[in-house]
Amino acid sequence: MSFLDSLFAKKEKSVLGVDIGSSSLKVVQLRKEKGQAVLETYGELALGPYSGMEVGQATNLSAEQITETLKDLLREAKVTTTSCGVSIPYARSLLTLVSLPYRADPKEQKTVIELEARKYVPVPINEVQLDWFIVPQVGPSGNAGARDKIEVLLVAVHNDEMSLLQQVVAGAGLSASFYEIEIFSTIRAAVDDPVRPVMVLDVGAASTKAYIIEHGVVALSHAISSGSQDITRAIAVSGNVSIAEAEALKKREGFGDGGALGSPELVFSRIFAEVRRVLIQYETTHKKSVTSIIFTGGGGITKELDDYAKRIFSIDIRVADPFAKTEAPAFMRPILQEIGPEFAVAVGLALRKLDET
Fold first, then answer.
1. Do 131 and 202 belong to one domain?
2. How far apart are the C-alpha atoms of 55 and 43, rounded to whole Å?
3. Of the residues 157, 182, 206, which one is the last residue of a structural domain?
4. CB crowding 161-199: b at 16 or more within 10 Å, else e
5. Domain of 165?
6. In this predicted model, what pLDDT tens digit does every residue of 142-190 receive, in sequence order?
């Protein structure tokens, strides 16, 4: 290779984050320029219409149907790369924090974790892909102290789920170098405090996931059965409008207009009651305070949700703005900030993929 060849070969390539959710598919394409992540394109397609349902409703499509939808999205968003990272839904994975015996020897520690993991994974261990993270143990002085136990976050994904995702990716003509459980992508895109405990509240279509993140690791995860489709349904019933109209109202009015809709509060009050219980349980057990709540997911774009949440909780409340970690034209900022919560996973995936280049 000549000097000129190598010079021109340095052109950074684009990468893609692909978020396969239950109600929609989302993609974000980035490239690296002078060390910055530059937004090239993004897009979202609702899955509801592909299964005879409304926009915003959770679906259970086959790999073939998801593949066709993804191909449509890649074309509509004018995606120009096949190099990607792909999300694994939280609902199709197992995350559990366990306390295990500490071993100074890394090989011994690995053996202990693999043996103990069998007790916590509810299916035969050969039917899942297993990973784990050792949670940093920091004492009051800020240093890791002597210990006989360690906290380990066990992560397991069923082989069937991995096969489905790989089938979709191959069918859409993409090449994935990694598959990542959605919360880890969200942490990368939305959590800026690397040390203090923060809660991420991911209001998805079918359910809401509450995670407490500390030292960049999931210290607690909890699923709540109400989600953004319940908010949409409540608006549809109370306003006597279609699901599609209710979805638009949720984004356009939400808690605004003096709370005229009323119905979002009915669902969020149930969600927040459970969130409060989880917060109190964590703070009591660990003797430390959660410093903020960050909203992500489709329900996170409910208009003026943050103002409503600030009246309920006495800690810092913010709505995720993952596109803030990317370079984009100034005129696009308002819309990117508005849709940001829905794209946290896709942005997080693309940022990780960008680090590989």
1. no
2. 15
3. 157
4. beebbeebbeebebebeebbbbbbbbbbbbbeeeeebbb
5. 3-92+160-356
6. 444 456 888 888 899 999 999 999 999 999 999 999 999 999 999 999 9
